[in-house]
Amino acid sequence: MTLSELYEALGGDLNDVLERLGDPETAEHFIIAFADDPSYSQLIQNLSENDIQSAFRASHTLKGVSLSLGLTRLGNVSGAVCENLRAGISPPDSLLKQLEAEYCGVIAAINNFKKCN
Known about the structure:
mainly alpha; elongated
């Protein structure tokens, strides 16, 4: 699997990422490192503790990192979660399930990419 194929599978925009990061090696480094980013797990933990403020920060970070890496679908869903939290309310379960599905899909694709390279 190539980096281009990974981004295609994720519905991401590799060209946009390359404009920001400069070269495929840097983009590959950061997309692989994304799998170790704690923002998603922090968000879930903060929600389980009903810590809306910390959950907001985690969702905002997840949104920013996702969009910076061209993970548009994940960035958009995490952005919707972020807006709920910004308003001081917990996101609906349906939105959290959508976030989980998108996040798990991204992580699975990254892990598959790492195995192939």
